[in-house]
Amino acid sequence: MKQLIIRVVFGCISLISASLMAQTPIVAPIALNNTAIDSKSKSNQVIFIVRHAEKLAGKDPSLSAQGQLRALRLAKVLSSTHLDKVYTTDYNRTRETATAVTQDQQLDLSVYDPRNMAAFTQYLLTQQGSILVVGHSNTSTDLVEGLGAEKQIPIADASEFDRLYVVTLNANKQMVSTVLLRY
How far is Cα 47 from Cα 156, in angstroms, rounded to an integer? Predict the structure, then answer.
């Protein structure tokens, strides 16, 4: 009986937090130096980098209910930005985090290998346009740093799922700016 009560209480807390999360205002369209990001610009490349949303337990887990809400929020935040490509690792949690974005923007998912971040970083530097990369707590900051940003604070693996990095590269593929947002 005691375990049942505990499950009910935790279930209610989960529903309340998910409900509150869904009601939190969405981040406004992103602007740098009072200029909106123009994803079609030939001179700049913009790379959006996020960690997958909240997940269930287990090997290769899917997103939790809260993670599904965060994935929808990500799609909403990026809805005013034209993306050209979306990359994820080959795990349920990363693919599911990107799905709402790809459906909203009618894009296919492309898979990258998180065990070879140096090669993937170099590959990104050969691409054009605006790109979303969905990774993990141990790959997202590595990618941001690999693109030229300063050392980043590690992501809290158990509790931090809301970082949205916006890395802007100039025509010479040199980092112009890195902005860290929360969504």
Answer: 22
Predicted pLDDT at 175: 84
Q: What is the 3-state secondary structure (H, E, C) of 57-99?
A: CCCCCCECHHHHHHHHHHHHHHCCCCCCEEEECCCHHHHHHHH
* Phi/psi-derived region of residue 95, left when phi > 0, alpha when psi is between -120 and 50, beta in every other case: alpha
Do β-strands 130-135 and 109-111 pair in parallel, antiparallel, or remain unpaired? unpaired
Confidence bin at 13 (pLDDT 50/70/90): very low
What's this model's pTM, rounded to 2 decimal places? 0.78
**Per the structure block, which two tokens stand in for 112?**
């990258």
Distance of alpha carbon 170 from alpha carbon 41, whole angstroms: 10
